[in-house]
Amino acid sequence: MGYAGDVYEGEKQDSNDVCDKNSAAYDFCKCYPDAVTCNTIDLPEIVIDKCDPENVNYDFCKCNPGWCDSGDCNDPFSYTYPCPYDDIGDCTDPRSYAYPCDPCNSGSIDYDACLCDPASCDGETPTDSQDPPAEPDPEKILLVELINKLCSGTMKAQVAKAFDNNRLSKIEVRIVDEFIDNGLLGLHQVYDNNGKLLEWDNTKNDFNGTPSYLPDGSYSNAVITIYRENIRQTCTSDGCGNAQYYGINMTLEESVASTFSHELNHNTDLEFIIDLRNRREGKSSQNIDPHQNITPQEEQVWNELNNCN
Ligand SMILES: [Zn+2]
Predict the structure, then answer these.
(1) How far is the CA of 32 from the centre of ligand 1 (A)?
(2) Which domain holds residue 214?
(3) In a domain, 11, yes or no
């Protein structure tokens, strides 16, 4: 529609047609009594006219969908993205506290305390030894989603391996959003058989105790901590995290993701885990360095993130 002032008085007095847009008598509601803005239904001719900027019913977003928020929470470009997640306990969904589906995941419907921890079932009444109660692990969900949205196939494969449904090794994830003066970006810890969380001792290159192991040689329970504020404080104009020292500029979230991937690798690197146990028990050992298998993979992740930016 035009605006007052662009028509001289008297100019259009030749027509009294309420449906003639060029007439001074033009009256949208009289002409289209059923139109939306006149409190009733939408007529086909109005719908068509919605893309006519002159029309009173002009709908910019309908006619220019690429310019407006779709309102679709599945659309990554919408402000409503992502859709709110409703945890229905689906153990096949990595976002669920019930994930993965295995008898030693205390959040899973398949959880079987006696199967995965026979010591807790010695008496008549099974006792929960060290498993935390079934609770959602929002930190894990967040980091898994972060990795899945980034372009590094190596990181995605690492996540899939660490949280594979068939793996009995449980991983609890913690994100620390305050600065901790420990020089760490991430930390991988394991529990011993008494439920004590062990620390890594750099001087003896081993944990300060004996981890609890599963029959396949992997750790029963691990805790991975991501020091996000520590990572954030490494950020310079060259990027965040350790990759910047190798000339690779990573964003904070890429650095958080690759740190998580690094720590997950500490829980899946069976070659090292078994070798360390052999060394501790005085058996034949290759004395593998804890990062021998992890550093090359981490560099691969950095390169992938760098190349797809
Ligand atoms: Zn490490």
Answers:
(1) 71
(2) 137-307
(3) no
